[in-house]
Design brief:
This protein is α/β, with parallel strands linked by helices. It contains nine helices and eight strands.
Length: 205
């Protein structure tokens, strides 16, 4: 799968489920529930214990799998070999960008300043993660696109049913959601996550 196909799938989906489980089994259940609810782009974070097992289990689904909370090139390579089709970091790391480029895997680093964004662009990053997005307003995207019209931004952190369309209307290529899914799972289990995922997808349709 080429990086351009990955970008197209994420842009079409508009929603990335950021899965952060207490253990592998919880992450598997969260991921499968999100998929059953219609979210087919899943970011499996490396803060989840036993993440390798999660990748293995989800290969049986039709989800586009990526890796999140990737802090270095070594972790990025592990994720790619585990089946990640995209890699996400909370920050920009040049070595991670290099190894992702080597394998033809999109790298979405977290950037908050124009300087960080330009460095990421120069390293071949096509989509930049805005994290934590709840420290900004959707108008930030338009402000960035003034001097950097070529920048595509994926806000993550603080995205919810009330503001998702505002971010997308402001120009976000996609958004990442995570804590809402965890809260739903904690309060209502698998079915609650399925229902919440459906609400997100219905919201943007």
């Amino acid at each position: 799968m080429s990086k351009y196909v990955v970008h197209a799938q994420i842009e079409k989906s508009k929603v990335v489920a950021v899965i952060r489980g207490r253990d592998a089994e919880e992450a598997i259940q969260l991921s499968k529930a999100a998929v059953d609810g219609g979210i087919h782009v899943i970011e499996l974070t490396y803060t989840t214990p036993g993440i390798q097992k999660v990748f293995e289990e989800l290969q049986q689904t039709d989800a586009l799998l990526g890796a999140g909370s990737v802090l270095d090139a070594e972790t990025a390579r592990h994720a790619i070999l585990a089946g990640a089709k995209f890699v996400v970091s909370p920050h920009f790391n040049a070595d991670t960008a290099r190894i992702c480029n080597r394998y033809g895997i999109p790298y979405f680093p977290g950037c908050m300043t124009i300087r960080e964004m330009v460095e990421a662009l120069e390293a071949g990053c096509d989509v930049l993660k805005l994290f934590p997005a709840n420290n900004f307003t959707p108008s930030f995207i338009g402000s960035v696109n003034g001097p950097l019209p070529q920048v595509s931004i994926m806000p993550t952190g603080g995205i919810n049913l009330d503001n998702i369309n505002e971010w997308l209307a402001a120009g976000a290529v996609a958004v990442g959601i995570g804590s809402d899914l965890n809260k739903a799972f904690k309060s209502g289990g698998y079915d609650a996550v399925v229902e919440l995922a459906r609400q997100y997808m219905n919201k943007i349709s």
